[in-house]
Amino acid sequence: IPSKRSVDGPGIWVSCVKGKEKQTVGELRDLFDSIAADIWPIDNPHLPDSDSEDEDPNQVSELSIEEQIKAEVTAYKRPKSEQRFVNCQTNTPCVVFISCKPPVDPVHLVETHIRNVKSTGATRTRYTHRFVPISATCYTSLPDMQTLCKSLLERYFAHSDESSIHSYKIELRMRNHSTLTRSSVIQSIAECVPEKYQVNLTNPDLFILVEIFKSVCGMSISTNYYRLHKYNVMELANDFVQDGNVEVTRIS
């Protein structure tokens, strides 16, 4: 995955084993590319046209393999501007941030992977612990965060059944930041939520995920955060084994 110096969303925060940040970025490249290729496929102009009925099947098969290998090599050499995922340097132990480009939706990407882990027990990673998808980022000022929150809520309710939401909870995590207090951030974001929704700290219908890192604030909206074990793949894999399933290799 190519790198850039600043954290910029949309993207995905990932907690990992200390000292294995570089290896984590490597394994996430393969994981994210694989999932994104299934959900948001890219038309590949290098693949041959298979509609011809006059070509020899063996020749078509050989050409197909060659072209597929060529396409894979081309993908790895793709310019940074065309890469879907970019590693953002955090210089912080145990965490990495991978930004992503449209049409990739970080929440959809993460929840697709988490559901796969929940059903199979295979994490497909060795050093990754937990994911936090970020739909957008802003500067860590209270007005900017309120603007971002209102925008995300408006976008979410425009594409979902608003009548099924009655309560919410703000999940806040702060790293390397000492300017704002937790209470001031939570209060400011709560002011953006319509009054008809009540705070529920144990079993809310909707989660507002907030991640503050230095001078950057990222947010996303989820309804499955608790049901999917807070996107913790290690816990899901362990639960899969404890439920009586045959132990599986985390990498598959």
Could you give a short description of this structure?
It comes from Lentinula raphanica. With 252 residues, this protein is α/β, with parallel strands linked by helices.
Query: How much of the residues is beta strand, in percent?
Result: 15-25%
Kindly report how far apart the N and C termini lie: 21 Å
What is the structural class? alpha/beta
* Major sheet summary line: 5 strands, mixed
Estimate the mean pLDDT confidence: 86
Question: Number of DSSP strands?
Answer: 10
Unreliable stretches covering 5 or more consecutive residues? 45-62
Strands in their spatial order, largest beta sheet: 1-3-4-2-5
* Count of individual helical segments: 6
Write down the secondary-structure element order: EEHHEEHEEHEHEEEH
| Outline | globular
Radius of gyration, Cα only, in angstroms? 21 Å
- State the share of residues found in helices, binned by percent: 25-40%
Draw up the topology in text.
Blueprint: E1 3-4, E2 11-16, H1 21-39, H2 57-76, E3 85-88, E4 95-100, H3 106-120, E5 128-134, E6 136-139, H4 142-158, E7 167-175, H5 182-190, E8 198-199, E9 206-213, E10 216-222, H6 233-242
Parallel strand pairs: 1-3, 7-8, 7-9
Antiparallel strand pairs: 2-4, 2-5, 3-4, 6-10, 9-10
